[in-house]
Specification:
This protein has 416 residues and is of the alpha+beta class. It is 24% helix and 33% strand. The protein is built from eleven helices and 21 strands. The radius of gyration is 23 Å and the shape is globular.
Amino acid sequence: MTIEIRAIREDELPAWLDCLSIGFLDRPNIAGIVAEVLPHWDLARVWGAFEDDVVVGTARTWATELTVPGKRPIKASALSGVTVRPTHRRQGILRRMLEVEHAAARERGELSGLLYASDYPIYSRFGYGSAVQTAAWVLDASSTAFHDAAGGRIGSIEFVATDEAAADAIRDVYDEWRVTQPGEIWRRPIMYLDDVGHGGVGWGDVWKGFLVVHRDDAGDLDGYARYHAQAKWDHRQPRSTLTVDDMHALNGDAEVALWRYLASVDLVTTVRAERRHPGDRLPWLLTNGRAAELADAGDGMWVRLHDIPAALEARTYERTGSLVLEIVDRGGGAADADERVRVAIDAGPGGTRALLTDQPPDLTIDAAALGAAYLGGTRLRDAVLAQGWDEHRPGALADADALLATRDAPWCSTFF
C-alpha cells in the first residue's frame, strides 16, 4: 500500500468530507458544506491521505492566536477534522498526517498546536497534552438568590436582534476579553455568523436562540450572553431549562448582571451554562452556593509546542528559576525516532530567556507533559506520570513544576 499525504485540491473536497463523515459516523449534507466552507477554509491547510485517488485520512487546521500567561497572544494552529478510514487504521496514517502538519506549522511560525480530543488516549503520542479543563455549570434558579453585595443590575440588559451586526458586536467584546484570559483563542469570523444563526445549514441545525447584551453607564457594550431554552411543564408547573451557549463580560459588574438576568427568566427553573471555567465564581454570588453544581467536568483544549524555546519565552512566570529541560518529542519527526530538544530557561517575573543548549539537562520530560503544563493550569508533576521522567538533578521536577504553575487556571470557551 502506498499512501500519499498532501494538501487537497478544491475538486477533492467532497471526497475529503465524505471520508470525514465516515470517521465521525455522520452523514451530513456534503454538497451544502462544500458551498459553505470554500470561502472560509484555507485548502493549503486541509490535509488528505490518499491511496491512489481515494481519501483514506483527513486533517485540517486553521490559524489562530492563543493567549498565554502574561496575557500575550501567540500564533497557533487549531487542529480538527482528524480521521482515518476504519479500513486503514493502525497503518501509521495519522502519524504521517500530523508529521506533515507539524512541519508546516513550524514553517508558518506557529508556536503551538491546539485541539480537542475526540478520543483521550490518542494525542499524547504526538506531543499534545491536556492543558485546559472545562465544565458546565448547572444552576437551580428556583432555590437561590444573589447576594446584594455581588453587584450587577438587570436593568442594564437589553435584547438585540440576531443579525450580522450582532455578530460584529459580540466579536468586539470577545476580542477585547480573550486577550485577558490565558487559554483563550482567536475565533474565525464565520464562527460569529454561526453563533447568531447565519453561518449556513450544511453541518446541521442552525442556532435559534436569544442574544442579550450589557451596557455600562456610558452606554458602551461590555458583555453579552447567547442562550436557547427547552420548554418543560411538570404537573402543570413551568420547569424549563435555559442553556447558555456563550457568555463573556469585560468586567465583574457586567458578568454578575448577566448571571442575574439568566437566572430570572420567567418559566425557567434550571440554567445550564456550557464550556465554562471549572473555577467560575458563580457559587460565591449566590445566597445558596449549593444551587450551582459542576457537570461534565474534564479535559478541554490540548496544547502542543511546535517551537519550544520561543513558546517558553513568550509567556510570563510568577516565580524565578533556572534549569535545563530536555524534551522528548515522540510525534514531531520520523516515526522510528524520537526528537530531543534541550532548552536552557532563565525565567522570572522580570523577563525570560529560553535558548537551545548543549548543556547537560536537569530534567527530561515528554513533550505532551510540557504541552499540558505550558498554560499553568495542569501541574507538571501530574502530567509527567503518563510517560515518566528522568531527574538528573535532585529537585529538578519540583523546580520545573513550580516555575510553570500559575495562580489562575487557564480557560478556553471556544470549541472547534
